[in-house]
Design goal:
single chain, alpha+beta, 9-stranded antiparallel β-sheet, two-stranded antiparallel sheet, 11 strands, about 20% helix
Length: about 170
């Protein structure tokens, strides 16, 4: 991911709202803007991977002209940027951004920030996943200067896994 950020990617899509706060893409509105901007670029909302870092969203999706070719797209600073090649695959994208209930995000973040044992936790990346048994689910990470924790939440808002910050043992 750092490689992509440092490449000076070029803008390829429609504009998102300009000058958004650093946590804009942790909100339902922000994620809807990502979908709106990506549709004309990738031809829909089906992607292979999605990770939001608050101030930008990284997505791998098939190219419209060659679906077996995966490409990186980054949404930030009001634009969809071309992040370059992401590989070749025979697998169709398993994540449809339009199928996740983004309205759950405020409650999911509240639970992550208060329920994982980190007082005054800062939000960190959130990643969308697909599991054949579970369907779509989100992993939300929180952190502070002393560590991090994460939890998984299904598309109905139910916490399915918690990984609070572990305490160090005495003498470590």
């Amino acid at each position: 991911m750092d490689r992509i950020q440092d490449r000076g990617a070029s803008a390829v899509g429609t504009d998102l709202l300009k000058q958004e706060p650093d946590d804009y893409f942790f909100t339902p509105e922000g994620m809807r803007k990502v979908m709106e901007a990506l549709k004309p670029v990738i031809g829909g909302t089906a992607v292979s991977s999605m990770s939001s870092h608050g101030s930008y969203v990284s997505i791998s999706a098939p190219r419209k002209d060659k679906p077996e070719m995966q490409h990186w797209y980054i949404c930030r600073d009001g634009k969809v940027e071309d992040g370059g090649p992401a590989g070749v695959t025979e697998q169709p994208p398993s994540l449809d951004l339009s199928k996740f209930d983004w309205d759950l995000l405020p409650d999911m973040w509240h639970e992550a920030r208060t329920g994982l044992g980190i007082k005054n936790a800062e939000r960190s990346p959130m990643t969308l996943h697909h599991d054949s048994g579970t369907g779509l689910y989100m992993t939300l990470h929180v952190r502070d200067d002393y560590g991090s924790a994460y939890m998984d939440v299904d598309n109905k808002g139910k916490v399915t896994d918690r990984n609070p910050r572990e305490r160090m043992q005495s003498g470590q």
